Amino acid sequence: MNHEGMEGSVIVITGGGSGMGAAMAKDFAERGAGIAILDLDEARGSAVADSITDANGKAVYKKVDVTDKQVVLTAADEVEQELGAITSWINSAGVSKMVPFLKSSEELWDLTINVNLKATFLCCQVAIEKMLKHGGGTILNMSSLSGKKASAWQTVYCASKFGVQGLTQSIAKEFADRNIRVNSICPGIVYTEMWEKLKYEYAQKKSIDPEEVMPYFKKNIPMHRLVDLQDVINAAVFLLTDNSAYLTGQSINLTGGEWMD
């Protein structure tokens, strides 16, 4: 494993208690980074932090509602006191639900936009305020193939992730000459706990058996496999280190060839 480029870095990961966030946290800690997990789920967030410290890594957990800027700011201050200057920030907290458009409630809209888009906006503000004081840094927004490609029954989710793309590009442009790089990853189907629930909703949408959902996806992906967590980690390492020093405002489509724009 290539461990270069992460020694001494301090990486904040929202939604670090599960899924892609947790996978990145554990991997980056092995590469020598100090990890701060910001998650509303105390049991899961602290479990990931504990698993890192048990393996002699550096990690702290903060119970954070990412839609509340003051809470995020307080957590960021504590992280810097405990681990040092924040060098990278990953916005990985997210929610997703599949619902027909006319059955999509205002509550679903508010929840999805707040967690997926508003929180990314707020966290980017906090991260950039910190990074400007320390001479730069990198931000990684976890978007989705749904931030590029519209799909029925996912209107609200697509709107939130298309928004993340616009946010990422605008911030990247504004701070490109301040040594702050902002990029996103747009994965296709990553089989995490989120999809364990979503596959039942997708099965309803397509009128197929839930157990047929993943094979159906694989058939339609040119590489005929889903996104592996290691694929996400590898792309994130590239975007957070100097290997991508000339890249900002870009999105990596982790889609096995399904989407190329």
Automatic annotation (TrEMBL):
PROSITE patterns for this protein: ADH_SHORT
Pfam family, one: adh_short
Alphabetical keyword list: Oxidoreductase
CDD domains hit by this protein: SDR_c
Oxidoreductase in keyword set: yes
Gene Ontology biological-process annotations: bile acid metabolic process
Highest taxon in the source lineage: Bacteria
GO molecular function, one term: oxidoreductase activity, acting on the CH-OH group of donors, NAD or NADP as acceptor
InterPro entries: NAD(P)-bd_dom_sf, Sc_DH/Rdtase_CS, SDR_fam
Gene3D superfamilies in UniProt: NAD(P)-binding Rossmann-like Domain
Keyword Transmembrane included in the entry's annotation: no
Assigned protein family: Belongs to the short-chain dehydrogenases/reductases (SDR) family.
Name of the protein in its database record: Sorbitol-6-phosphate 2-dehydrogenase
